Every structure is written in C-alpha cells, then in structure tokens.
Amino acid sequence: MSVLDSFFGKKEFAAPCVMGDESIMSPKAHGTSETPVQKDLRWKCDYDTADRICNFNRHYAEYAGYWLTTSFVEDARAVAKEGKEITFYDSNTGKPLFVAPKGRSMEDFLKESGSHGWPSFRDEEVVWENVRCLGDGESVSVDGTHLGHNLPDSSGNRYCINLVSVAGRPVGGEEE
C-alpha cells in the first residue's frame, strides 16, 4: 500500500469488475511482461508504440484518436455488416481480453469510443479470466500488459483501452 493509498484509499470497483493486486505489474523479463508485443499487430498498429505502452508504462496512453488513424474502424464496420463481434487479444500474449460489441451495436461502440478518444468497453465485453483492475483504476492483463484505465460514468464501469494493447493475434488459432 502506498502512502497516498493510506490517505485516500484504493478504489474498489463494482462487480463484475475483478480487482487485481499491484504485483501483477511487477518488473519482469520485458518491462511488466515476460515478452515484447507481437510483431504483426492487427489494424496496422505501430510496434514501437505498442511495446512502449504495453510494457514500459503505467500511466500514459497512445494519443487520443490514435485508433482512428489505423484500419480498425473500417475493419469493425465490415465485421458488423456480417453480424459478428470482434475479439480483442493481448498484444503480448494473444489471450482474449475483450469481445465487442455486446449489448449494443457496433455503431454505438464506435460512437462511445469516439467521444472519449479511445476504444471504450463495458463490463459485459470484458474477458474477466484475463483482465484485472488495480486500485488506482489501471486496467491490466493478468500477464502484466498495461491496457488503459477504468473510468466509470453514469452507465457504469467504462474501460478506456489503448488499441495498441489489444491489437494482438490469438496464439495458435484463427481470429474470431
């Protein structure tokens, strides 16, 4: 527990949010992860930006609107036309982290994300087996990848996530 936590306390987010311990982000072989990000990230995400944000960062983000400079929006709309969801994979490990949209349309997902500057997920879109929230609001993978932050609003928990952190490809399988 840090000195600030002793004064202000750590946040506890409402279920189904799964809280994690700070030890998840302890130093490992490659920053906070065992491995660097995958070389062939989806949506033409930049490797160097992804590696810096995912593995050597606890508080900063890709710049607001970065995701709009990638092929993501075009690809998402194409997936929506097929009536499918997108699975977002950890850029380091390839584990599934989010599946969207759930409980809303792709256009609603893109609109909310656009209004905040980063892809924004809701509780039902999180793969809780692989995602945790820390007491300061940081959202991380169970393997130490920095994802973004939980910034709750009037609709509940909102996970504001760096696209470079969830642009991985599934290990040993086809994309869903």
The tally of strands reads: 7
Order of adjacent strands in the largest pleated sheet: 3-7-6-5-4
What is the C-alpha radius of gyration, as a whole number of Å? 15 Å
- Tell me the fraction of residues in β-strands, as a range: 5-15%
Number of helices: 4
Largest sheet: 5 strands, antiparallel
Category from helices, strands and their pairing? alpha+beta
Helices and strands, in N-to-C order?
HHHEEHEEEEE
Q: What is the typical, i.e. mean, pLDDT?
A: 93
**Outline, from the CA principal axes?**
globular
Extract low-pLDDT stretches: 1-7
Helix content: 10-25%
Distance between the termini: 39 Å
Written overview of the protein:
- The chain contains 4 helices and 7 strands, in the order αααββαβββββ.
- With 176 residues, it is α+β, with helices and mostly antiparallel strands.
- The strands form 2 sheets. The chain has a 5-stranded antiparallel beta sheet. Strands 1-2 form a two-stranded antiparallel sheet.
- The protein is globular and about 40 Å long.
- It starts with a helix and ends in a 15-residue tail after the last strand.
Outline the secondary-structure elements.
Layout: H1 3-8, H2 47-55, H3 72-81, E1 86-89, E2 96-100, H4 106-116, E3 120-121, E4 131-133, E5 138-141, E6 146-150, E7 159-161
Antiparallel strand pairs: 1-2, 3-7, 4-5, 5-6, 6-7
In short:
It contains four helices and seven strands, in the order αααββαβββββ. The chain is α+β, with helices and mostly antiparallel strands.
